[in-house]
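Chain A, query sequence.
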Amino acid sequence: MNKISIAAEDRVFVLTGAGISAESGLPTFRAEDGLWAGHRVEDVCTPEAWERNPWRVWEFYSARRAAGAKAEPNPAHTALAELERQLGDRFFLCTQNVDDLHERAGSRRLVHMHGELSKAHCERECGRPPVEDHAIYRSLAEVGRCPCGGRMRPHIVFFGEIPLEMERIQAEIAKATLTLVVGTSGSVYPAANFVHWARLAGARTAYVGPERPLNASAFTHVVVGKAGEVLPGLFQLG
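Chain A, predicted structure.
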């Protein structure tokens, strides 16, 4: 396996997806049968689902919190945290995942573009920031309300909503000289466009995952394999 060289002047942007968390035992974002951990996405992860049955949404995300708490970071998470430690502010991580495995591995310069499982925010979008919330709820009555009166909902970007911190993400892609995509198939937008934006900015682009991505032609370097096996020995710092 050819190593990816990272020179002293390089800036690295990393995008991770469900594949990296799957290696820690968490279900992938969307299965081939159209179900997500046994649920129709339309029933648990859309604004309409929240309006129709907020308890069903909270029940689903409470179960995901319980599963996430049992999972542990794998060698891929650790390798990215170590790369950040060596590169400092020349490293930036954007994850599509809502779990905290990157943070628990030691990553600090990161954003969760699809939200965070361990937080909640007001359903009214009243402007108050999200709050830490690790509760495993047993009924809707247990779910708190915002000072404005709105019910708190999972701090998750539902299908049809705009991903978080897109301006910052685009700025980081624009100044990166190497963009690394890990464990995401290239089927979910706008994240699938990131590699194209990186190429337009003149960056090298690399992919690591268990199968070739749908947008493989956009990469200058494709490594097919499990991230936990590939990433720990992939980088050569100059």
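The chain has nine helices and 13 strands. The chain has two domains: 1-26+72-114+163-238, 27-70+120-156.
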